[in-house]
Amino acid sequence: MKYFQWMVIVVLACLFASSSQATSNIPNGFRGLKWGSAPSSNLKKLSGPTSDGTTMYIPSSQKSLPPFFTIAVSEEAYSFSHGKFYSGSLWLEGKENLEIVKASLIKELGKPTFENEKMRIWKWKWPSSKIEVSLTHQTKFSKTTLTFTNNAF
Q1: Does residue 52 register a pLDDT over 60?
Q2: What long-range pairs does 50-57 form, CB within 8 A, spacing at least 24?
């Protein structure tokens, strides 16, 4: 296993801990934004608000996005409902990165609560919370999407 793959697994293991610890380590946000917060000044509006009050933001500069642990991030977006942050997504290039993240999520959160291998979709519910983690992969573009959603907002 390559060094960077091992580091991703180690860091994700620390983030997710074990299933019993995952309850106490519920993330309070995603990539520096706290759940329920207003859009920060380093974000720019991409679309919205929609009729249901959803507005999507992206970083002001997508040129030098911080990595997700050691994996390069090609894009990221943040969704707000009536001005409150509830969901963050990032996109990773390559099937190898899909496999690293998927293996780490399975190891730390257990079997997905929903999976469709043919459609390349996996979802987990964070124990004792309203947070869901979804992982999808577009084979045609070799692009993986990782999304954290807090359904409390």
Answers
A1: yes
A2: 52/81, 53/81, 53/82, 54/79, 54/80, 54/81, 55/79, 55/80, 55/83, 56/80
| pTM of the predicted model as reported, rounded to 2 decimal places | 0.80
Q: Mutual orientation of helices 95-109 and 3-16 as an angle, nearest 10°?
A: 30
Give pLDDT, residue 21: 45
CA distances from 26 to 57, 72, 127, 133 (A): 23, 24, 8, 12
Residue in 58, 16, 19 with CA at minimum distance from that of residue 40: 58
Give the list of residues 6+ apart from residue 52 with CB closer than 8 angstroms, or none: 81
